[in-house]
Design brief:
mainly alpha; about 10% strand; about 35% helix
Length: about 270
Amino acid sequence: MTESDSRASARQHTARLLKMLRGHESEPGLSPMNPARPTTIAGSEPDGAARVTPPAPSVGGPVPVKIAEIPALYRPLPPLPTMALDRPAARVPSMAPDRPAPRAPSVPAIQEAPPRQRTASIPTVGESLRHPQGALGRLMARADRLNRLNRIFRAYLPPHLHDHVVLVRLDQDDWTVHADSSSWATRLRYALHNIRETLGQQLGIPLPKPRVRVVPPDFPPRPRRPRLTLTQRNAKLLEVTARNVPDSRLSAALRRLAQHAGASSGAV
C-alpha cells in the first residue's frame, strides 16, 4: 500500500468517527467500514512498535455519507441598501417597507442683499465746530487768527510786559494794544517802537503806528471790613496811659479815645 492510499483511508476513518460522535449513522444496507488492524512491518519500525494498517478500499470506492441538514431557527433580514460615500447628506431609509422615507427640509436659497447706497454723511458735532458756517464761522476764524498773532507778538515783547498788555488788533490797517495802567502804557510805547520793524518782517506786512489805550482790569469788589469797636479793657488801658503821659495834649486825646469804648463789647 502506498502512502497516498494510507492517507485516504485515514481520512475516511476519521470522518466516520466524527459522524458517529455527532449522532449520524450510515444509510441502511451499507456495511460499515472494517476497522483497522495493527500490523507490524519488518525493518520499518523499531522492536516492539506496532503500526496501524487500514484495510484496502473496496472496488466500488468509498461510499458517501449523507449529513442531515438542521433547519434555520431565525429569519434572515433583508440586506441594507448601499449608500454612496460621496453623498454625506444621504440618509439610510427606514427598514419598514410601508413607511416612506422622510424628506429633508427644504432650505430657501440665500439671496445676496443689494449694495447699500451711500448717502451724504451727516457731520458730527466736532466737525461742525471745527468748520462752522455763517457768522459763527467768521467769528471763530477771526479768534484763531488773533490767537496766532498774539503768540507771535508776545515772542517779541519784553517778558515784564506780558501780564499787563493785551493785543486787540494787528494787521496792516490797524495795530491796537491795551495796557492796564498809564505807567505800563508808557513802557509799552517804547517797546512797540523797538519791535515794530522786526515784527513787520516776521508777519510779512508793513505795520502802522501802534495805538496804546489804557483799560484798567475789572477786579472784583473788595469785601467790606467789619467796623472796629473799642473794648472796655482797651479803654481802661488808654485811661491809665493818659494819666502817666506828661504831655497834656496827648493825655487829653487818649481820654477822648477811651470814651468811645462800646458798652456792648463782651471783652473783659
